[in-house]
């Protein structure tokens, strides 16, 4: 049985481990510069900048989904952006990812948001099929970004 709960400050170590795990999974561990202290301050301080849903199976953390709140001027409304979704290998195939996504959807609409968005790599066909199976519309776009330091 999969249960989903909101993370608390006591979960910072687990959240950090999950962030490192998904970064390793994608070969991008070198991009992770956050710290446990930063996660605690930014996620659980007086003005949280993100939220985390933790999936548990038999009281063991099986995976997570992290999210932020944003505003879309075309919608004229807030939306939820899923940052990461990750499930430990041992729990894949047990509908943990589905439970996380459906709970994120519930959290989104319970907070009067009109849209839930996330990104997926265009060559991650298994993830795309998974999201489509859940009823998501997949719109592959290019993602542009600047990192530190910003160009002048």
Q: What layout of secondary structure does this protein have?
A:
Layout: E1 2-6, H1 12-25, H2 36-44, E2 51-57, E3 60-72, E4 77-87, H3 96-110, E5 115-117, H4 125-133
Helix pairs in contact: 1-2
CATH topology: Aminopeptidase
Strand content: 25-35%
**Biggest sheet details:** 5 strands, mixed
The geometry reads as: globular
Estimate the helix proportion, in percent.
25-40%
Can you count the beta strands?
A: 5
User: What do the pLDDT scores average to?
Assistant: 93
| Uncertain parts | none
Tally of discrete structural domains: 1
CATH superfamily: Gcn5-related N-acetyltransferase (GNAT)
Order of helices and strands: EHHEEEHEH
What is the CATH class name?
A: Alpha Beta
Instruction: Supply the number of helical segments.
Output: 4
Radius of gyration: 16 Å
Name the strands of the widest sheet in spatial order.
Answer: 1-2-3-4-5
Q: What is the architecture at the second tier of CATH?
A: 3-Layer(aba) Sandwich
First-to-last CA distance = 52 Å
Question: Structural class, from secondary structure content?
Answer: alpha+beta
Summarize, please.
This protein has 152 residues and is of the alpha+beta class.
Structure description:
With 152 residues, the protein is of the alpha+beta class. It has a single domain, classed as Gcn5-related N-acetyltransferase (GNAT) (Aminopeptidase, 3-Layer(aba) Sandwich). 31% of the residues lie in helices and 26% in strands. It has a 5-stranded mixed β-sheet. α1 crosses α2 (36-44). It is globular. The protein starts with a strand and ends in a 19-residue tail after the last helix.
């Amino acid at each position: 049985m999969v249960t989903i709960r909101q993370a608390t400050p006591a979960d910072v170590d687990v959240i950090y481990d999950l962030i490192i795990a998904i970064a390793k999974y994608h070969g991008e561990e070198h991009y992770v510069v956050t710290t446990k202290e930063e996660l605690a301050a930014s996620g659980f301080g007086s003005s949280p900048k993100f939220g985390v849903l933790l999936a548990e199976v038999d009281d063991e953390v099986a995976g997570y989904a992290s999210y932020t709140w944003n505003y879309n001027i075309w919608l004229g409304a807030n939306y939820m952006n899923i940052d990461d979704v990750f499930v430990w290998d041992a729990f894949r195939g047990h509908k943990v990812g589905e439970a996380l996504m459906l709970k994120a959807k519930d959290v989104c609409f319970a907070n009067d948001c009109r849209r839930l968005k996330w990104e997926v790599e265009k060559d991650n066909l298994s993830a795309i099929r998974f999201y489509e199976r859940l009823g998501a519309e997949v719109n592959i776009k290019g993602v542009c970004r600047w990192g530190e330091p910003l160009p002048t």
